[in-house]
C-alpha cells in the first residue's frame, strides 16, 4: 500500500503541474488572440502580437496552437475579450492586483469577489493600490542567448532605458525599465538580436508585507485561487516571499 500511496501522491502532483501548465498556455493563447484581433495578424506590424508570441514561445506553447490563435482572431464570430482589473487586500493587509481578459465581465467580477470573500480578503476600488505598485517593463533573457559580452550587453540596455539589471544565478538576466521605456527596450533587444524568454509590463511593489509562514499560507490560498481562474491573466501582490515561504510553495 505504501507504494500505491506514493504513486497517488506523484499523480496528484503531476496533475497540479499539468493544470498550471494548461492555465499558462490558455493565458498565452488568449493574449495572442486579443493582440491579433486588435492590431492585425502581422507580428512585424503589431508589437503587442510580437510580444505575445515571444512570451508563448518562452513557455513552449506549440507553434500550431499559436497559428490557430492568430487565425481564429480573424473570425468575426470569435469571442471579444475585454481587459479588466481588480484591486483589493488579502488577509494581513497584503495588496493584490488582478489583471483579467474576459468575454463576460459579470462572470469574472462575481468569481473574483467570491475568492476574496472565501479567503478573508476584500475587494477595493479602482486605483486604491496605486501607492503600493509601480508599473515596470520586465525582460527575462536566458544567459545562453547572450550574443555579446556582459559589459557590452549592459551598455546597450542602459542606453535603451534599463533602470536595473538583475542576474538570477547563472542562468538569467532580468532587465527592469520604466513603463514608458518598454517599447524602446523591445526595439533595442531586437536590434542586437537577443532572444527574450519573457517581456511584459509588471506591477512591482514599492514596499512589501512580511508575514510568518502560517499567515503567508492564508494569503497564498487567495492568490492561488485567483491564478487558477480562466479569466485571470496575472496576479500581483506585495507579500514578501522569504526563503521559508518559497520552500512551502
List keywords for this structure.
alpha+beta; 4-stranded antiparallel β-sheet; 249 residues; Alpha-Beta Plaits; globular; Arc Repressor Mutant, subunit A; 3 domains; 47% helix; 8 helices; single chain; 23% strand
Describe the protein's architecture and organization.
The chain has 8 helices and 8 strands, in the order αααββαββαββαβαβα. α1 packs antiparallel against α2 and α1 (2-39) crosses α3 (63-73). The protein is an alpha+beta fold and 249 residues long. It has 3 domains: 2-73, Arc Repressor Mutant, subunit A, CATH 1.10.10.200; 82-131 and 206-248, Alpha-Beta Plaits (2-Layer Sandwich); 133-205, Alpha-Beta Plaits (2-Layer Sandwich), CATH 3.30.70. The strands form 2 sheets. A 4-stranded antiparallel sheet has the order 3-1-2-8.
Q: How would you sum up this structure in a few lines?
A:
The chain is built from 8 helices and 8 strands, in the order αααββαββαββαβαβα. With 249 residues, the protein is α+β, with helices and mostly antiparallel strands. The chain folds into 3 domains: 2-73, Integrase, N-terminal zinc-binding domain (Arc Repressor Mutant, subunit A, Orthogonal Bundle), CATH 1.10.10; 82-131 and 206-248, 2-Layer Sandwich (Alpha-Beta Plaits), CATH 3.30.70.980; 133-205, YebC, transcriptional regulation domain (Alpha-Beta Plaits, 2-Layer Sandwich), CATH 3.30.70.
Q: Topology, please?
A:
Layout: H1 2-39, H2 47-58, H3 63-73, E1 82-89, E2 95-102, H4 105-118, E3 122-124, E4 133-142, H5 150-159, E5 162-168, E6 172-178, H6 182-191, E7 198-205, H7 213-228, E8 232-237, H8 243-248
Antiparallel strand pairs: 1-2, 1-3, 2-8, 4-6, 4-7, 5-6
Helix pairs in contact: 1-2, 1-3
